[in-house]
From TrEMBL:
The gene is rimI. It catalyses: N-terminal L-alanyl-[ribosomal protein bS18] + acetyl-CoA = N-terminal N(alpha)-acetyl-L-alanyl-[ribosomal protein bS18] + CoA + H(+). It is found in: Cytoplasm. Its EC number is 2.3.1.266. This is [Ribosomal protein bS18]-alanine N-acetyltransferase. Acetylates the N-terminal alanine of ribosomal protein bS18. Its main location: cytoplasm. It is an enzyme of class 2 (transferase). Keywords: Acyltransferase, Cytoplasm, Ribonucleoprotein, Ribosomal protein, Transferase. It comes from Lacrimispora xylanolytica. Residues 2-146 form the N-acetyltransferase domain. Belongs to the acetyltransferase family. RimI subfamily. The keyword Ribosomal protein applies. GO terms for molecular function: protein-N-terminal-alanine acetyltransferase activity.
Amino acid sequence: MFLIRKMTEEDVQSVSEIESVCFSDPWSFDTIKEGQKNRFDTWLVLLEGDTVIGFLILRIIAFEGELLRIALRPEYRGRGLAKKLMDQLVEYSIHNSVKSLFLEVRNSNETARNLYSSYGFIETGIRKNYYKNPQEDAVVMCRDLT
Ligand SMILES: CC(C)(COP(=O)(O)OP(=O)(O)OC[C@H]1O[C@@H](n2cnc3c(N)ncnc32)[C@H](O)[C@@H]1OP(=O)(O)O)[C@@H](O)C(=O)NCCC(=O)NCCS
């Protein structure tokens, strides 16, 4: 049984573990703990039972939403679970009067780029050498919600 809800401080450790197995440049425990207090950001966690298996972060500023992170524990991938989080992203954004969504993604991250394309995100630009560890360009993708 899967459930999506807003993240609480009790989830910080789980999200931190997911970060460390999903990203080559993971955010630290303290960054996550502080970050989830940012009033512009919404952190959603996906649970199977009591276990946090994935999360998503949305930043909303002046009717524009930015998908900052989406990640699933590796053993849960390829089962459509990221789509549950993406569905929530779109629904929550529309409910909060977001007019457009954008994100950056590593050029080499074909899985994520496919996921975003399937949700109507269109590639609109490149940010050269945007990422570190390893250094890589970011592809900017946008979706209009109006
Ligand atoms: C990106 C990520 C969240 C996708 O999670 P997932 O649960 O495996 O995705 P889903 O099973 O819901 O698949 C959704 C779509 O993603 C794409 N996708 C998933 N796995 C893929 C793969 N191995 N190769 C190519 N595309 C893939 C497809 O478009 C798929 O839709 P489809 O099944 O209709 O073809 C997951 O791979 C992940 O956590 N990666 C590490 C963190 C990351 O890179 N996050 C993105 C940048 S912040």
